[in-house]
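Trying the structure run again after the queue cleared.
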Amino acid sequence: MALAALVELLGRRYALGVYWRLRAGAESFRTLEARLDAPAAQLTQRLRELREGGIVEVDEVGEYRLTAHGRRLQGVIEPLAAWADEWAALRPRQRVPRGAADRGYDGALTPPDGPRAAAGLQREASVVNPGCPSGNHL
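Done. Tokens:
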């Protein structure tokens, strides 16, 4: 899955930090190394992976910058960062809807009406996408 590959890439140590720094513009390797307090070998590896992923490129003066795809990713990452800031500000008990554990409902995986409703939703999804046996890949 492409989303999982992207999340895995950005989840590697220093990768998201590099991305976040380059949103403001191009930076040299030494600047990134100092600002991220990253070991040179790990930073070199992350930059290589981000270049191979088409997110980062080297400009004409040898500095790293976001590619067009990397800049488009900002429209996804920045709202996610805002959501994460709000989520991080919550106390752990505020992160779980009241009574959710008692009902066994996490708000995303199983409807409050239980497994039968989930099976009905799966049947509906299979009708929408008959080529997908599980109905989960719309």
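Confidence is low (pLDDT under 50) at residues 107-111, 120-138. Worth checking whether this holds up in the mutant runs.
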